[in-house]
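Sample entry (576 residues):
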Amino acid sequence: MQKIFTPAAIIMLCYVFYKFSASIEIISGVAIFLFGMLVLQDGFKMLSGGFLEKMMKKVTGNIFKSIAFGAISTTIMQSSTLISLFAISFVSASIISLIQGVGIIFGSNLGNSTGAWIIASIGNKANISAFALPIIAFGVIFLFHKLKAIKGFGYILAGIGFVFLGIAYIQMGFHKYQGTIEFAQYNIAGIKGMFVFLGIGLIATLIMQSTHATLVLIMATLSTGQISIDNGAALTIGAQLGSSITTGIGALNASIDGKRLAVAHIVFNIITAFFAILLIKQIIFIVDLIAMGVGIENINLKLAIFHTLFNCLGIAIMIPILNKFIYYLKKFISNKKQGDLDSPIYLDESKIDFANASLEAIRNETKHLYDNSLSIIAHSIGFDRSAIRSFEPIENLSNNKALLKDEIDIDSLYDTKIKSLSNAIIDFTTKAKTHMGKEEQMKEVFKLQMASKSIVEATKHMRLVQKNIQKYSMSENKILSKEYDKMRITLAHLLRSIEELRISDEDNVQILKKISKYKSSFNYDDFDILNKIDQLISQKSINISEGTSMINDLSFIKRIALALVEAISNLYNVDI
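Predicted structure, serialized as tokens:
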């Protein structure tokens, strides 16, 4: 698609520049504005190596705090799309809940209105190109600094400068066009015209990937008197709808909750747009009342008032039905991946830029890897996961050997559920580490890498021992069968104690003692193994071939147990 789009766009631009020379300022202004937004976002990303993520975790305790956070963050960053993508990343990484993410989305739409106020106030009252260039110059100086934070500040300054410069060029272009093209002749009265301008606003935002860029165009056109406030309002509603579709595209690779949040953004904007169109005359009447009350005559400032009221209306409609809204989101957008243990669930490429979000994603995916390993290991020793998690005594459960009769293709299970997932974690971790500057983050990711390595090793060892466990646990030789049952039971006890640790929210000291106790069951060395096997062979309880198998299998079972304990220690930051 990109191979076709890029040449087509270049050819089309060349044609437009040749045919309509007056459009050069407008198109170039939009390009400079969008470039400025990209530079600005890069700057905030460089400064967000933990601060924004920590703040998001702390200050989104309830829906109103989430809305406030979304509004303030968007006001500071001047990018509702960036904040929305942040929210999707953190919801996908389980840093914040879905309802907190929805609150941030609501707030980001409200915060977006500050952009309208800034563009309306500064863009039309000051010669912003006069101070755009000095801001860029100062920003470039900071770009050469070695410190990441100062370099990030440089990107922010340069970004602001380019945004202002872009606005200036767009305004110049529209003033040139004012005498040659009369947009009023294309105005369509009534509801039909409303939907036409709404569609134009939506398409413009989709093309430019920026609500702010669309607002600049709307206000530049509005200030020249070529469209009415009604048309400007419809364009604004369309621009808001376009921004949610952009967020939806950004959530294509997100987790299920990330996708739910993107859908929530789209639905919220559709509902808000519906009521805004339905009540457009009443809202514009209120806008005029407010404008008269505070002495505002500038038509762009009136549009900024409309933008604010429009977003407040949406929030006021959604807050009372929020819990129901979340319920239906979860009901109709189900997690198809829950039954697909082969695929990564939490590794979302949009999280890579944000250290804490990517760290949480790696942790959750490593837990997913452990779940897969647990299922394979438990099944291989004759237990299913529900049995491991139950309160039924392990000794009683071990007597039911029905699962041992199943034919298990453990090599295939290892390749699909362990190796492929481990490879995905390694790939994601390698990319994410380039954005982790703090020592504690690097230490944490190293622990998770070690946990993943131990889980893979434990499953690999089970591949080597599974056939013998299946064969000798079902043996008619009761002594041999009993010895293999001991291996199964001891490992099952360890698995159960680990599961208790994983699901416990209470003080886990006693559980850690239990894990340590079962870990000590595997403290035998090669001398102990050989001594035991010699004794069984000399008593003719087992033959030499069976004895050789037992030597190897006891060694592998020990490695499995110790690898699992090592994995859990690193994954949950506990000492066992």
